[in-house]
Amino acid sequence: MSGASGAAAEDGVGRFAAIDWTRPWLPSIETRGRRWQAAALDSPARYLSVLNDDAQAAAHVTGRARPLAFIAQEALPDGASYEGHIAETGCVPTRHNLHDFFNGLMWFAYPRVKAALNARQAEQIETRGIGPTRGGVRDALTLFDENAVFFAYSDAMLADALRRFDWRALFIEGRPAWGTRCEARIFGHALLEKLVAPYKACTGHAWLVPVPADYFSLDDTARRALLDERVTASLNAGTIESRAFSPIPVLGVPGWWQANESPEFYDDTTVFRPGRRSA
Predict the structure, then answer these.
(1) Alpha-carbon Rg of the chain, whole angstroms?
(2) Block means of pLDDT (10 residues each) for the chain, length 279 residues?
(3) Is 240 in a helix, a strand, or coil?
(4) What is the pTM of this model?
């Protein structure tokens, strides 16, 4: 999906240098990300070498159980589909840019989810072929890969508020619940790329994940492992559709943006739209 999006051309080193690891949505990928960032600032060759060292050590697999590896984008054979190539060979075509940088990091943060998405995409390509349009399932899978936010919750009322676009209940009245009964974790690599230069209207597509109450007492590694398992199970359970997502303006997440400490921040209906709440 990274190769198919056309979201970013080759980045200069300035874009890699612009990553601010103090952003509250980045801690879970910071350690690996800093190493990759240093390699990317050195050279494309060094960057790919570090990615492949990590892939070999982690022993993750792609959609058809092929060992994960990274290759330069130009090594993708002519006529080969991006997702199909990953599924069949394990090799992820990778450009020297932020879009593919964050895509690679997600293969390590949520390896089972990435493999499940790859398997579903490859299956769709084999069934429907590569045409001028992806079709509804591939569109939804691409949206997931590029823009998903995992909304983990133990309180169903908070999930309901998100579905209804009830921003006051979710972000103002429900503010004390963040970190204890719900949280947001960004998965979509295109969204992570956008958030290198954050703006108020940045909106993700929330994938709702029910979790037990003790989830919020787990450390970061355990939380990611639980989400990796549960989200993968939901992806494999049936047909995925774009309407399964709930839009979430990510800078509204408590603790993610200083301006949202004021309730008036959420009065901007161009960002925090009424949506289904008024339906």
Answers:
(1) 19
(2) 44 83 98 98 97 98 98 95 96 97 98 97 85 76 97 98 97 98 98 98 98 98 98 90 91 98 97 71
(3) coil
(4) 0.92
